Each structure stands twice: as structure tokens, then as C-alpha cells.
Amino acid sequence: MAKLTIGVVALQGAFSEHIFMLQRLPDLVQGTVEIRSSEDFDRVKDSIHGIVLPGGESTTMAIILEREAGLRNGLKQWVQDGKPIWGTCAGLIMLADTITSTKKGGQTQIGGLRVTVQRNAFGRQSDSFEVPLSIPAIESYGANLEGSLALPGVFIRAPVIESVHDEGVVVVARLQGREDGKEGEIVAVKQGNVLGSSFHPELTSDVRFHRYFVDICRDANK
Amino acid sequence: MSFQTPANLVAPAATANGAAAKSTFVLKAGLAQNLKGGVIMDVINAEQARIAEEAGACAVMALERVPADIRKNGGVARMSDPQMIKEIQAAVTIPVMAKVRIGHFVEAQILEAIGVDYIDESEVLTPADDMHHIDKTKFGVPYVCGCKNLGEALRRIGEGASMIRTKGEAGTGNVVEAVRHARTLMSEIRHVQSMDEQELYAFAKEIRAPHHLVVEVKRLGRLPVVNFAAGGVATPADAALMMQLGMDGVFVGSGIFKSGDPAKRARAIVQAVTNYNNPKVLAEVSENLGEAMVGINISDIPDSEIYSKRGW
């Protein structure tokens, strides 16, 4: 299998951090391309093996996408075709079929991921937090540089996945359950080759979640 | 310069026993990283905040008067009424920032208490302390601070700022000072990269910056936190200019709501920041924006009213 090229949507937000992390997987990833416009997308869509939708402000990205109909429709088609795509934080919000706590008047989205996502589910910046996440799907890659099997979960004004709409959507990660026995919130899901996470692995030194996505891309492009 | 350097390589601060950690540097700097490639707009009420959000602002800066009016009205400029900030917080879903006077840590405590997402310790307001900036490490809320050069940027980061912006000259609609500060910063960063390790000690002393941060700048080839342009940006072309000079995003103060068609201009500046390297898009979004804010020549401003000279 040839090495992969990953497209990173670079409208706004933490896209260069994703590029940096993907470049840390040189055995798997040949290169990355930034996608800012409909023309960019048309040029690269047949040569890329997966797309990352980074974190940032979902309202900002939605407004830029309004102007770029070609990119918006191209991304919708990409998801419908079941090709590999990973949305982090704002990217997860863009992918979700249903969003709650949107700005007044709602916001345009890409959709296709059959979940309901609540924006800013934990509150303002003062409620942002870091917590180790136990994610079985990445444990086969071994421990991270700090020697921990858990992924450092960085949640910044983060959304959560309130509900999944059918059994085609698999829960990849949850926050730890509460003391009263309630299950923790869903913070990562996978629907075929579509991956969504409400946390930011690109803001850590742990590259394993990126490797997990790149492996999804590799299997899908076999 | 892109944000490709290992600035995100910080040790996870989460504690081993599985408890959540709050207000860590990763979270403070990380919010700024998520604002990159975006436009932060000054707004003075909930209605303007909604216009900014609809136009694609990645955050708003809540203040009672935009810098152009502070300049016009004179007097002492202070932190805004918390009630007004709370109304703006209720009106929008994007992050809300607010300004405190340089050194006024009690204004900062008040803003932290009402839950603003970022504090700007700003030279646009009248300084409250002529010697000291706020010890920002004592706060859970993250801070952005202005700078004219590398030394000033690293002093602020040393005091706990997790985001930097150029000072420029706010309220003038004149981008020349922001350009000067951005160019100075970038040039000094390149200079640091050319130095050997011994030279860094003397250079840190010369620019009055913490030595470990100068070392970090050499390693990264950029500031160790996100760096926005601010102070005089009035058009989409100004915004794209600052991005091409290597800034990570743009603050627009008086430039939007002191112009003829704020909603349209705001949207155009947002598009310009995403497409800063695409002159075709820049031409499209620059069309028919109506009247820009009236600009002021820096040489016409009395020395005592040059905001960028405030801060130490």
C-alpha cells in the first residue's frame, strides 16, 4: 500500500496543529494538503485519502462555507460516499446531523454523521478541562511518550455527543462514569469511515489518535 | 509563517489519578490556537455582537467605547460595565473577551468572576500601574497582551499571557504601526534563530526577556503562543497584509462599526483572513464595502495619546 495524502480543511482554527501531527507519522503519511476553497477541493479530491475537519469556531467555518458552495457540497458528498473524514470539536459539530445550542437562527452544516451534538456542552472557557481518556481503540498502539495508555483529553469549550441515532454509529470514547452510576458523556464516535471527537488530540504530544484515523484511511483505500 | 512548529508539544497536565485539570496552559493557549485564522471584533452591545457572530467573527471583544471613540472623547478609559458584558455573553455563542487596564488586577478579578473567556490587558485603556503588569499566572482565565517587539512579547508571556497581539495604534484605522510591530517581531525571531546558545543569554538581557523563553523562540522559530495582529486594521486588504506578514489572526476594533456597512465589511474581513494568499478572492470581497472608517495619521497624534507607548 502506497503512503497516504491527507487533506486538512484550513478555513479557520487549529489546522496547522493537525498537519504537524500527521507529519509525525512519516511511515504512513506521505503528505498533507490544506483545503481553503472550492477550487482547492476540486484540485485535490481525487488524490487525497482522507480529510480532517479541525477545531475552531464552527459558526465561523459555517459562514465561510456558505460562500464556498463547491467545497460545502463536495464535503457533503465525501461523507455520503463513506470516505474517511475526521472532525475534531468544531469539525464534529459540522459533521453532526443535529446540533443543539447553536447561535440564534441556526448554522449551516455538512451533516451525515447520525448523532446529536450539543455545542459548548460544558460551558465557558473557565469550564474547559484536561482529563486522561481511556480509549480501547488506540491501546493496541502501546503507551504514549509519557508511558500512559490513556490519551490526554483536551476539552476546550467542547461539545458532547448527546445521542447516537442508530447502531451504525459506534461509541469510541466516553468520559469516566459518575459516582451515581451514570455513564459518562460520549466524546468520540465512528460511523463507518467517519470519525468525530469533541477533544483535541492535535493539542497534545500523543499521536495515537491521529494514527487511528490514518489507519481508517488506509483500510478504506485498500 | 504557519503554526507548524511543535508549539503544541506540551506535557499533558492532566493528573494521574484521572481527575480533571482546569486552567492549565494547554487549555489557555489551546483556546487561542482554535481562534487562529479568525477575526476578533470589538463590539459595544449585544446587537453589534450578534452582527459580528453572523459575519463569522471567531470571538468578540466587549467594551464600552471602541478605541476611535476613546481617542475622541479622552478622559480615563476603564473596564466596561459587567452588566453590558453579560448581555453580550447571553447574545452570542462564540468566546467573549474583555479589556482591563494595564496592572489593574482587580478589574481582572471582576471579569474572571463573570466568566469572560479571555482578558485583554490593554494599552487602549488608561494604565492603572506605571511599573507593573498583572501577574497573569495567578488567574484561571487566559490573557492576551499587546507587544511592539520580541522582548515585550516574551515579558508578557513570562507574566502568564497565553496569547499575544501586536499593539499597532488602536482607533486610527491606520495599519502602519501594526505592520511595524509585526515586522519587528518577525525580524527579531529570525535574528534569534541565527544565534548560538551562548549569545542567547546576552540577547535575553538586551531585550529584557526571560532567557528560557528566548531559547523556546529559537527552538520553535516563532512565539511560543498564538500571535494576532491588532491596532489599525480597517480593510480586508489590511487584514490579509497582516496574515501575509506572519500573524496567526486579526483583531479589528473601530474598523468595522465605524464604517458605512459593518455587517458587509465584517464578513469581507473574515473571508480575507481565510483567503489571505488568494488575491482573486481578496479582490471579490473588497468590492462595494461602502465607506471605510476615517483614518488618522500617526504623526498628527500628540505623544501622550500614542497608546502603543503604554506598557513596560
From TrEMBL, chain A:
Keyword Membrane part of the UniProt annotation: no
InterPro entries the UniProt entry points to: Class_I_gatase-like, PdxT/SNO, PdxT/SNO_CS
Organism name: Chytriomyces confervae
One cellular component term from this protein's GO annotations in UniProt: glutaminase complex
Active-site residues per Swiss-Prot or TrEMBL entry: 89, 200, 202
Source lineage: Eukaryota, Fungi, Fungi incertae sedis, Chytridiomycota, Chytridiomycota incertae sedis
Name used for this protein in its record: glutaminase
PANTHER family, per database record: PYRIDOXAL 5'-PHOSPHATE SYNTHASE SUBUNIT SNO, PYRIDOXAL 5'-PHOSPHATE SYNTHASE SUBUNIT SNO1-RELATED
Binding positions for L-glutamine per the UniProt entry: 56-58, 119, 156-157
EC class: hydrolase
Family: Belongs to the glutaminase PdxT/SNO family.
UniProt keyword annotations, A-Z: Glutamine amidotransferase, Hydrolase, Lyase, Pyridoxal phosphate
Automatic annotation (TrEMBL), chain B:
Keywords carried by this UniProt record: Lyase, Pyridoxal phosphate, Schiff base
Residues bound to D-glyceraldehyde 3-phosphate: 183
Gene Ontology MF term list: pyridoxal 5'-phosphate synthase (glutamine hydrolysing) activity
Binding site for D-ribose 5-phosphate: 42, 171, 232, 253-254
Domain of life: Eukaryota
SUPFAM superfamilies in alphabetical order: Ribulose-phoshate binding barrel (SSF51366)
PdxS/SNZ N-terminal domain segment(s): 25-230
Protein name, UniProt field: pyridoxal 5'-phosphate synthase (glutamine hydrolyzing)
GO biological process: amino acid metabolic process; pyridoxal phosphate biosynthetic process; pyridoxine biosynthetic process
EC numbers on record: 4.3.3.6
Entry's family note: Belongs to the PdxS/SNZ family.
UniProt catalytic activity: aldehydo-D-ribose 5-phosphate + D-glyceraldehyde 3-phosphate + L-glutamine = pyridoxal 5'-phosphate + L-glutamate + phosphate + 3 H2O + H(+)
Pathway, per record: Cofactor biosynthesis; pyridoxal 5'-phosphate biosynthesis
InterPro entries (UniProt xref): Aldolase_TIM, PdxS/SNZ, PdxS/SNZ_N, RibuloseP-bd_barrel
Catalytic-site annotation from UniProt: 99
